[in-house]
User: Fold this.
Amino acid sequence: MESHSYQTMHEHLDAFMAAFLTKRTRSVALSEESKKAAKRRLREERLGINPMWGMDNLWASLDLRYCTQLPKGSGEQDRAFVRQHIAKFGLQTCYVLSADTSLHQLVMPVEDAIHEVVGSSNTSIISFIPGKVAYFEGHSVGDRWLCIREEKVYPH
Assistant:
């Protein structure tokens, strides 16, 4: 069941961090969620500040047990790789978080999101299934990662 529309941007981002970042990075990120950080986050949301800005190096903190860097190839080969590996989930829509403000916080058809994000070099996360299936596009060429975690995630 797809459940993107009732989740907030931060819920998608938190699910991504809990599922796909290394334990060390995750504990640092989660420990920063103090009351002060929660207030800052709320203020940023109200001001329209995009949390994807400044996340270009997030790829360095991805948990390689669940995240696979896309093989070097053309943009179309990258899109085909993503399509092939998510096909078994039968997804219709996804949630996009992106430094590209025209795509940020959109629920989109999967094919449209893959076409717009994969290979764009705009730091983005496509949340296909929150905390289970996601795609991360970094700012640099080659910073393209597909993350799949099929077992239940228990954030610590």
Summary: The CA atoms of residues 42 and 117 lie 26 Å apart. Strands lie at 67-69, 93-98, 106-109, 124-129, 133-137, 144-148.
